[in-house]
Specification:
By secondary structure, chain A is α/β, with parallel strands linked by helices. In chain A, about 35% of the residues lie in helices and about 25% in strands. Chain A has a single domain, classed as Rossmann fold (3-Layer(aba) Sandwich), CATH 3.40.50.300. The longest helix of chain A is centred in the C-terminal third of the chain and has 16 residues. Classes of the chains: A alpha/beta, B mainly alpha.
Chain lengths: ~240, ~230
């Protein structure tokens, strides 16, 4: 029996860079199921918070505590970047890459990769160079590559920024599917419609701090702070 | 002008008549530089990738030294290898001086910094692109290096070809450690130097043209085999 990954507890966490405080201090607890939307204006620290949770950004203060060991936790989570990073390889090799890193045999990894390729609608493009895909295809590929190892926790940094409606819908379908399969998802987004559609709870960041957080849909319908109300109403909040 | 023309005619004649000496030294040139290139790549490419992914105290210093060593004077390298391999030197017991092996050793020393520097430049850019993803995927250091070497292979090919170019045209070091001994360590460049010294310009020029043609042909062949300028951008 493997120990659980969650709850994840962030205590007094802050990230500084070049003497400037990017986020913090933040106290946050992640547990349960579903999707948490991280929302807030530009520069509020959404990406930094996600990267700090994922371990890509070193905490300057505070601590992060998993329910299991840190090494174990790093292995059981994945991250999808705002600008999808494509390995200079074919589509199928991109998908197989995380499996190959875990030591899976080439042919086994390839079979799984081809399965995912079909699932994200890229069947027939297995041998195509990943770098020449369209923006939507790249993001789908990045998402599938993150999901292929069946992570228990998935971070997404604005997965459908600059995508059109159809690509966004496909991404959201993949996310809903993953969430139902038990993957805990934390997603930064600018798209309030998307946050409403997918989120089970929301964290509203402002100035690097958690300004308000709550369960959906109550948070979206009746936020308690003025800033969150203004932000959700579409006003400009800084 | 006459010398150039004579040289060209002589070159064609040498090739067409299957001149045994010519084919022997051309083949030796290729073998020595080819072996040096394989060994140098085995050292320089992983080193370049390591310097790209790993942060350590003397990293900047190491890169600066590698860049500086690109301009290493072959004659000096030859001299140092000579001293090391000579009878009274520390490696004298191996009896390698004036053998093709000694020439390979000297060329490895000359081209490793060149290949490592050029490879590092491109792998550093690739690493900037891959950094977050590979860290996020929890790739080990060896896996990071392997991914860079595999996905940066086209740029690495350019680095290797630059190393080949420097090696095949190099004369100072192999002259000293090889000794330009006929049927033993004579290669294209040392033969050219010898014939020039004898005032045999037509033959020297002929060998020169053949050397250039050889270098160009090898480059084209490798580009064709790896399809560098066709298909995908990487």
């Amino acid at each position: 029996m493997v120990s659980a990954l969650l709850p994840l507890r962030l205590t007094g966490a802050a990230v500084h860079r070049r003497g400037k405080r990017l986020i913090g201090p933040i106290d946050l607890m992640l547990e349960g199921q579903g999707l948490t939307a991280v929302i807030g204006p530009n520069g509020a620290g959404k990406s930094t918070l996600l990267k700090a949770l994922h371990g890509l950004e070193r905490l300057s203060e505070g601590r992060i505590a998993w329910a299991c060991t840190r090494a174990d936790a790093l292995r059981r989570q994945a991250f999808v970047f705002q600008a999808p990073v494509m390995l200079r390889r074919s589509v199928v090799d991109n998908l197989a890459f995380p499996l190959r890193l875990t030591g899976m045999h080439r042919t086994v990894a390839r079979v799984a990769a081809e399965e995912w390729c079909a699932r994200i609608g890229l069947a027939g493009m297995e041998g195509r160079a990943a770098t020449v895909l369209s923006g939507g295809e790249k993001q789908k590929l990045a998402l599938a590559r993150a999901l292929i190892t069946a992570p228990e926790l998935l971070f997404l940094d604005e997965p459908s920024a600059s995508l059109d409606g159809r690509a966004t819908r496909e991404i959201e379908a993949l996310l809903s599917f993953a969430a139902e399969a038990g993957t805990r998802i934390v997603m930064a987004t600018h798209d309030m419609g998307q946050a409403r559609r997918l989120a089970r709870d929301a964290v509203f960041l402002r100035g690097g701090m958690v300004h308000e957080q709550g369960a959906a849909p109550a948070f979206f319908d009746a936020p308690t702070t003025d800033a969150a109300r203004a932000f959700l109403a579409g006003d400009i909040v800084e | 002008m006459n010398d150039l023309w004579d040289g060209l005619v002589r070159a064609v004649w040498l090739i067409a008549s299957f001149d045994a000496d010519l084919y022997e030294i051309a083949w030796r040139s290729l073998r020595v530089t080819g072996a040096a290139l394989v060994i140098a790549c085995a050292i320089a490419l992983p080193l370049a990738a390591f310097l790209a992914v790993q942060r350590f105290r003397w990293r900047r210093g190491t890169i600066a030294v590698l860049n500086a060593l690109m301009g290493l004077p072959p004659v000096v390298v030859g001299l140092i290898v000579y001293v090391l391999l000579s009878r009274s030197g520390p490696l004298g017991v191996l009896g390698l001086l004036f053998t093709p092996t000694a020439m390979i050793v000297a060329q490895v020393v000359i081209i490793v910094p060149l290949i490592a520097s050029i490879a590092h430049q491109s792998l550093r850019d690739l690493w900037a692109e891959y950094h977050d993803l590979l860290i996020s995927m929890n790739a080990s250091r060896t896996q990071r290096i392997a991914a860079l070497l595999l996905d940066g292979r086209r740029a690495l090919l350019t680095a290797a070809l630059a190393g080949f170019g420097r090696g095949i045209g190099e004369v100072g070091a192999i002259m000293i450690v090889g000794g330009n001994i006929d049927h033993a360590t004579r290669v294209m460049t040392t033969a050219i130097a010898l014939e020039t010294g004898k005032g045999n310009f037509a033959l020297a020029l002929a060998l020169g043209f053949i050397l250039i043609a050889l270098a160009v042909a090898i480059n084209l062949a490798i580009h064709a085999l790896s399809r560098t300028e066709t298909g995908g951008r990487w």
